[in-house]
Amino acid sequence: MIRVSNVSTLAELLARAGELKAVSDSPELDLQLLLCSVLDKPRSYLYTWPERSLSFEQQQQFEQLLQRRLDGEPIAHILGQGDFWTLTLEVNSSTLIPRPETELLVELALAMGEQLDQHKVRVADLGTGTGAIALALASEQPRWQISAVEFNPQAAVLAERNRQRLKLNNVEVLQGSWCEPLCGSFDLIISNPPYIDAEDPHLSQGDVRFEPSSALVAAQQGLADILTITEQALDRLKPGGWLMFEHGFEQGEPVREILRRAGYQQVETHRDLAGHERATVG
Ligand code: GLN
What is the CATH number assigned to the segment(s) 84-281? Predict the structure, then answer.
């Protein structure tokens, strides 16, 4: 139980961002988001009314949220939501938190879509999690028919809730393993599968500690699910269709090799905004 003896102004609270430096790469932003959540106001409010004080209850609630962040809990889990592309998605501990680098898959898919016959484009997003990739594509291309597949039933329910809230009726959420629940053939099959090796020290740092390992970790140096999907997708792609993966920044070469060996052509890797090899298409 956190006790609050006196309330502070917004300016005083904003000045406490430094407390979050040890746990966050974006302490100012995190602090602003926690305050906005307590006040139920947009970020501009904090700087328009810096002399305003929180109520006693609000300050109590703020101290509790701040303590959770200081304990390392991801900001998206504390707020129950995260931003991806132009969308705000509900997020919980049953899925991966959508990441900015995954927007590269959305950009690539939209660019490839321009080469397709726009009348009956079918897309599958395998391991959709919150629904991020499928819903971002659906918001940009209302005429595409998008199947979002998720193995974890709780995550599938979350993706369906996000779909309903955003009213994206061109997405269907299917529960099952990779290509298994799909019917018919697809122009684009996209996946951000688990791709981290179980021994990777990155797994014991930051937000990933609070995410399900089923969404992060794969056998065979992180490549097992990419291998499975590559095989399964051969039976589900239309002639001339594309398969597209997100992968680790050191996995460009092995992923290109997996796709080429399976018979995919025009295999190419694209870099994310940080300059890392991040997505491979074939
Ligand atoms: N990019 C994420 C990370 O390194 C992992 C995402 C994934 O495994 N699909 O934290």
Answer: 3.40.50.150
Q: DSSP character for 223?
A: T
Residue type, 120: K
> What is the complex's ipTM, to 2 decimals?
0.93
Supply the residue whose CA is at minimum distance from atom 6 of ligand 1: 216
Exposed, middle or buried: residue 185 (CB in 10 Å: 0-12, 13-18, 19+)? middle
pLDDT in the model for residue 114: 86
Residue 258 Cα, ligand 1 centroid: separation in angstroms?
19
Ligand 1 centroid – CA 23 distance (Å): 19
Task: Give pTM, 2 decimals.
Answer: 0.94
Ligand 1 atom with the shortest distance to the CA of 216: 8
Any alpha helices (H) in the chain, and if so which ranges? Answer: 10-14, 27-39, 43-48, 56-70, 75-79, 103-113, 132-140, 153-166, 224-233, 252-261
Report how far ligand 1's centroid is from the alpha carbon of 250 (Å). Answer: 12
Q: Please identify, by atom number, the ligand 1 atom nearest to the C-alpha of residue 207.
A: 10
- Considering the chain, tell me which residue range(s) the CATH 1.10.8.10 domain(s) occupy: 10-72
> What's the Rg (C-alpha) of the chain?
21
Class of domain 10-72: mainly alpha
Per-residue confidence (pLDDT) for residue 177, from 0 to 100: 98
Mutate to test the pocket of ligand 1, among 99, 133, 225 (most ligand atoms within 8 A of CB): 99
Q: Please work out whether the CB of residue 179 comes within 6 Å of at least one atom of ligand 1.
A: no
Report the candidate in 89, 93, 109 with the shortest Cα–Cα distance to residue 166: 89
In the chain, the amino acid numbered 14 is: L
Sites in the chain below the pLDDT cut of 50: none
* Distance from Cα 97 to the centre of ligand 1, integer Å: 9
DSSP string, 84-117: ETTEEEE--TTSPPP-GGGHHHHHHHHHHHTTS-
